[in-house]
Amino acid sequence: MSGRRDADGPSEEAEAGGGEAAAAGPGDGVHAGAVRAEDPSRTDAGAAGAWRRRERGQGDGVPVTTDDPARDPADDPAHDAAERRFRRQAAVVLAVLAAVILAVAALSTPWRVLAAGPPDPARDFTAAEIARARAFDAATSLPSYLGLALTLAFAALLVATPFGAKVLGRLKGPWWVRVVLGVLVLTAIVEAVRWPLGVWFETLLRDYGLSTQDWAGWTADRLKSLGVEAFLLCLMLLVLVGLARRVRRWWIPAAVGAGALTVVMSFVYPVVFEPLFNDFTSMPQGSLRDNLLDMAERDGVPVQDVLVADASRRTTALNAYVSGFGATRRIVVYDTLLKAPQPQVELVVAHELGHAEADDVLYGTLVGAMGAALGAVLLFLVFGAVRRRAGVTSIADPRAVGVVMGLMTLGSLIMGPAQNVISRHVEARADVHALDLTRDPATFIAMQKRLAITNISDLSPDPVEYVLYASHPSSPERIALARSWAELNGVPVP
User: Fold this and answer.
1) Whole-angstrom Cα distance, residue 355 to residue 361?
2) What is the set of domains in the chain, with CATH numbers?
3) Residue 79 marked as a ligand binder
4) In which band, very low, low, confident or very high, does the pLDDT at 4 lie, cut at 50, 70 and 90?
5) Which one of 18, 48, 257, 331 is separated from 340 by 20 to 30 angstroms, measured CA to CA?
6) Is the pLDDT of residue 397 over 80?
7) Are 429 and 112 in contact (CB under 8 A)?
8) Closest by Cα among 327, 336, 304 to 450
9) Nearest-CA neighbor of 64 among 221, 219, 241, 246?
10) pLDDT at 52
11) CA triplet 374, 380, 383: central angle to 5 degrees?
12) What φ, ψ does residue 331 adopt, rounded to 5°?
């Protein structure tokens, strides 16, 4: 239910599934080629004809760049003119996509949910609870900011220097082998730097009673997460470099593919990737299960099942979420949450149903798909400005894997604060939905206090942390909203 930093940079607990699962969150590490092309400077009729056929999408399968790292296609006047034309086309597409994304975000985001009074942590939390939250925030800030700084530094190293090209230039084999090896090598370098910070952060979680894992379990989870990340990066970069080797306007199919992958991941993640990290069992028959299914039916949100995740094997934190679409949609409740009184569990799920009822995951997925497409177009436009400094000739060069990973990381970090602003408003709307559905602000406030105390949420985040990390309103803000809702709806104010 609440966002949290980790030592690898900004991250948050998965909540509402689907859309967030598909996308990498800011600070998740560096997401990191030369390919052959017929040289457009050739003046014989055969070469010119082949080049024109390829430009029209009728290529003969011969790659469109060169494997020679010293040979830069952009040095050819004909190639340079074509690139300028392509850049103008890409700029138009970029502007259209950006306008559509801004319009959808502006129209679908609930900017004015409910006027709430000022948050007052001292009204609902004891001095000891406030002090504990501040101490935890102070303890975790250093590894969190170090992780963010290292992520930025390594991404900048890959984009602004030939470091990545030099490292990956040592790799041998066909282009696709070098792409895969490049992803694995750079991912391993990043993880070697981040691993000590992860150990530091996990130690802090144990000190504060938030982690229940042993080191073997923690290591297994981290390696699985790393494997999923590397697999998806390999898939994306193989497609990207492969397209660049075959199609001069590679950014067009790359944009379509990036958007499609985002949508597919929203459907696939709950049933393929989530089970890698948790065991899910159907909630036993009983009043809680019946009430949750009845609440979903009253809300007009069909769900396939109510599942319990074995989160207690790694954490004491409380959470629940609704993930998936259609036949894959299900309510997921952490087993740690089941220790709370049943009305509080129902209220947490009512909040999550608010996301489903408002189609937040659907809108998030669509905006994410358009954002991924925009990213592919922007990559084409930005790459030309950094490729010489990075020591590569084109996206089709397998050595460019590092540049792409660095640019992806920087893009994610830059977009993080804007995504957080939208997320906080969406979460506030889901809170109001939960209050409308249950009409129980007293239980809502009791649940928010339980979540804040158990998860050691930051009760008074400073402005910088709020901008960088806060995907949800703070607990005092949510409590103030519940009291405002009670006043507006004629319900006794807790």
Assistant:
1) 7
2) 3-34+89-279+356-488 (no CATH), 35-68 (no CATH), 280-355 (3.30.2010.10)
3) no
4) very low
5) 18
6) yes
7) no
8) 336
9) 246
10) 33
11) 125
12) -85, 130
The half-sphere exposure of 385 on its side-chain side, counting CA atoms within 13 A, is 7
Q: pLDDT tens digit string along 22-80?
A: 333 333 444 433 333 333 333 333 333 333 333 333 333 334 444 444 455 555 666 67
13 catalytically annotated: no
Is 31 flagged in the annotation as binding?
no
**Which residues touch 105 (CB under 8 Å, ≥6 apart)?**
367, 422
Q: Which of 8, 274, 299, 431 is catalytic?
A: 431
Does residue 472 have a known ligand-binding role?
no
Residue pLDDT, tens place only, 113-172: 888 889 999 999 999 999 999 999 999 999 999 999 999 999 999 999 999 999 999 999
The amino acid present at 102, given as its one-letter code, is: L
Question: What is the chain's length?
Answer: 494
End-to-end alpha carbon distance in the chain? 21
Supply 484's token pair.
């405002």
Residues in CB range of 183: below 8 A, 6 or more apart: 32, 230, 233, 234, 237, 401, 405
pLDDT digits (tens, 9 = 90+) for 302-352: 898 999 999 999 999 999 999 887 777 899 999 999 999 999 999 999 999
Sign of CA dihedral 284, 286, 292, 298: positive
What's the confidence (pLDDT) of residue 326? 74
Measure the CA–CA gap between 74 and 376, rounded to whole angstroms.
Answer: 20
pLDDT class for 12, splitting at 50, 70, 90?
very low
Tokens standing for 275?
């089970």
Q: Is 129 a catalytic residue?
A: no
